[in-house]
Write a structure and sequence with these properties.
This protein is 39% helix and 19% strand. With 403 residues, the protein is α/β, with parallel strands linked by helices. α3 packs across α10, α4 crosses α6 and α12 packs parallel to α13.
Length: 403
């Protein structure tokens, strides 16, 4: 299959969170990951934390990376030592079990996890860095027999409540259910009640719980951010978004926790890995626009916090998935960017006009995103256009504007 054929095939598969077929597939193929892994779960920041970890550990180790984030092709989700799996490699591994995949109706993410783990085993990696999609034991990234050395919970928000629970406590326990006996668990500062809940859960599995330390002296520096995080000083990452500092600190804390198991040579290699990593669509100014994945309320709040570093007027173009909490997302954006247009995409997962029924009096709706973008540019020629909301919209517009 060509890259385009792979993408069209994966995109055509229905979204599914039940894993009965996947569990049968695992049993039939004896799928497992032969290398130890760092499993990254949470509501926001998962892909970014994975990228920071990958950049750091690649300075010494043979590293496999699986994320659920890409710009052009789903192949970008699977990398070894920073190199994306090829069309030929993907097709070969997929074809080995294509009939069984079709019979059991595996989802896109289940297929990507299968191909990634098989590819990592072939390459005999030292360490895998794996992002969870939905999170919890229902996620295809979780296989019971895998050697999970560290689970990182990046954040918590009320999301996927039909599957994960209707309270933060239920969602937290569901997400960290990927923790194995003896694995370590790293969490953000969540308050006394949630921290105790997760500590008790970790204790029941003889696992150690760590709370990410605070960073200090953060400051923007010409399109980058400087900060201190123990035991490192004078760290710098690329990007205007302060939330990237938070994500980098999760990676640095993970390095501290795993120092005995995966020691690194020196602090300078860690610093160099951070400063050289470029992260697309994280308050990224490109092709005359600003791109950011703000698909839930917490991400929208973090985005708005970063916007004061953007000089001049900002208007936003927004589309959301059907399961997004737009009642909370839109007010965050509107408070900073009063000019806006809501749009859509030819994608079943994205809201169309009727999905914005309660907001059409307050927000202009234009069905075609390119037409909407051009209208904003015409009506507000001095403004920078912020393209945000669903990852699908951001990827589509980033590609379209660069043609």
């Amino acid at each position: 299959m060509t890259k385009q054929e792979i993408e069209e095939y994966l995109s055509s598969l229905p979204l599914r969170y039940e894993r009965d077929g996947y569990d049968k597939f695992i049993k039939k193929t004896r799928l497992s990951l032969h290398a130890p892994l760092i499993h990254v779960i949470g509501s926001n920041g998962k892909s970014t934390v994975c990228e920071f970890l990958n950049a750091i550990y690649r300075t010494k180790y043979h590293v496999g990376l699986l994320t659920n984030s890409y710009l052009i092709s789903s192949l970008e989700c699977i990398k070894v030592d920073g190199i994306t799996i090829t069309e030929e490699e993907f097709t070969r591994i997929y074809s080995e079990n294509a009939k069984l995949i079709d019979k059991l109706e595996l989802s896109r993410w289940e297929i990507l996890c299968y191909v990634a783990f098989s590819f990592f085993n072939e390459k005999k990696i030292d360490l895998a860095i794996v992002e969870s999609s939905l999170g919890g034991m229902n996620d295809a990234s979780y296989i019971e027999d895998n050697d999970s050395r560290l689970v990182i919970l990046t954040s918590l928000s009320l999301e996927h409540t039909d599957y994960l629970g209707t309270t933060l406590s239920q969602i937290a326990l569901n997400k960290v259910s990927v923790l194995n006996d003896g694995s370590k668990l790293l969490i953000p500062s969540l308050g006394e009640e949630l921290t105790k809940l997760l500590r008790d859960y970790a204790d029941s599995l003889s696992s150690e719980l760590y709370v990410r330390d605070a960073y200090h002296f953060e400051k923007p520096i010409d399109g980058a951010y400087g900060f201190h995080f123990r035991p490192y000083g004078n760290l710098v990452i690329q990007g205007k978004a302060k939330y990237l500092v938070e994500d980098a600190c999760f990676a640095l804390e993970a390095v501290n926790i795993l120092q005995k198991e995966f020691p690194l040579d020196d602090d300078e290699s860690v610093k160099k890995a951070l400063i050289t990593l470029s992260l697309p669509c994280m308050v990224e100014e490109r092709a005359g626009a600003i791109f950011d994945y703000a698909s839930n309320p917490e991400a929208a709040e973090a985005l708005v916090e970063a916007l004061p570093l953007i000089k001049g007027e900002v208007a936003f173009l927004f589309a959301a998935r059907k399961d997004a909490n737009i009642a909370s997302i839109l007010p965050f954006l509107s408070n900073y960017c009063p000019v806006s247009i809501i749009t859509s995409l030819d994608n079943e997962a994205i809201r169309h006009q009727d999905g914005y029924f309660f907001y059409l009096e307050d927000y202009e709706y234009v069905d075609d995103p390119l037409e909407a973008y051009n209208k904003l540019k015409t009506d507000h020629p001095e403004a920078k256009i912020l393209i945000t909301g669903s990852k699908e919209l951001v990827r589509y517009m980033r590609k379209a504007l660069e043609k």
